[in-house]
Amino acid sequence: MSSAPLILTDQDLVFSDFDATISLIDTGLAMINSLPAPEQAEAWASEHRWRRGEIGSMECLREQWGLWQGSATEMFALIDSLQVDERFFDFLALVRARGAGLAIVSDGLQFYLDRMMARHGLRTCADDACAQSTDCLLRFSNPSAVTDAGVSIEFPYANECGQCGNCKASHLFRLRRGFVRTIYIGDGHSDLCAARYAEVIFAKDALAEDCLRAGRAFYPFSDFSGILSAVQ
Q1: How many angstroms separate the CA atoms of 100 and 179, rounded?
Q2: What pLDDT is recorded for position 162?
C-alpha cells in the first residue's frame, strides 16, 4: 500500500469509477434490492454469475434491469433517493484547479449517472476533448433510457472480450495520450482490468483485494475524504 503524498499536476489524468465510488452505494444493487423477493433473488443470481465470470456484464445488466416492472416515475424516484459522496465535488474542484484531466468510467447506466450529476449542477458529455474541461464532466457509461415499458440499454463501448459492457481499459488507453500519468479510482470487478494499466491506484473492496493478490501498490480509501487527504 502507498502512503506518500500525491502531487496532482496538469500532466495527470484521473479515471474514476462511479457506482459505490462516487455514488455512496451501487445504484444497480439499490435497484435490485427494491425488487419483489422472487425477482430480487433472480437478479442476485445473475450478479453472482457475473462475479464468478460465468457471464459478461452485458448479459447481467440486461437480465437485472429487465426485471424492473415499475413506472418511469418510480424509477426516477428511486434514483433521486440515492446520494453521492459530497467530497467528490471538492476533489473535482482540485482536479480542475490543477489543470488535470478527469473521466468517469462506469459499467453502469448512463441515465442515472447523468441524473445524479445534474442534481448537483454538473453537465456531462462524452467528448474526449473535454477531459480537462471546466464546463463539462467527461463520462463514459452504457447509454440507457427509462420508460414505463422498461429500461433499455445499449453497449457501444464493449470490446471483443465480452466481459464488460463498457470497456474501461479502452478509454484509458485512448485518453491517456498526451498525459504523463494516469490515476485510477475504483472499487469493483469492472475496475480490475483498467486499473492494472494505471500508474497510481486508489482502491477499496474488490479492487483492493486484487491489488493485494497481485502485489501492486495502491492507496487504500473508503471515500473521497481519504483521497483528498493523500492528494496535494
Answers
A1: 9
A2: 81
Residue pLDDT, tens place only, 188-231? 999 999 999 999 999 999 999 999 999 999 999 999 999 999 99
**CB-based contacts of 143, cutoff 8 Å, min separation 6:** 110, 153, 154, 156
Is pTM beyond 0.70 here? yes
Rounded distance between C-alpha atoms, residue 137 and residue 231, angstroms: 20
Q: 73-103: buried (b, 16+ CB within 10 Å) or exposed (e) per residue?
A: eebeebbeebebbebbbebbebbbebebbbb
Per-residue model confidence as pLDDT tens digits over 85-104:
999 999 999 999 999 999 99
Task: Name which CATH class applies to 12-24+85-230.
Answer: alpha beta
Say what the pLDDT of residue 63 is: 98
- Distances in Å between the alpha carbon of 100 and those of 133, 176, 179? 9, 11, 9
Residue ranges covered by each domain of the chain: 12-24+85-230
CA–CA dist 41, 38 (Å, integer): 5
Distance in angstroms (rounded) separating the CA atoms of residues 101 and 103: 7
pLDDT bracket for residue 140 (50, 70, 90): very high
Residues pairing with 219 in the sheet:
202
Tell me the Cα Rg of the chain.
17
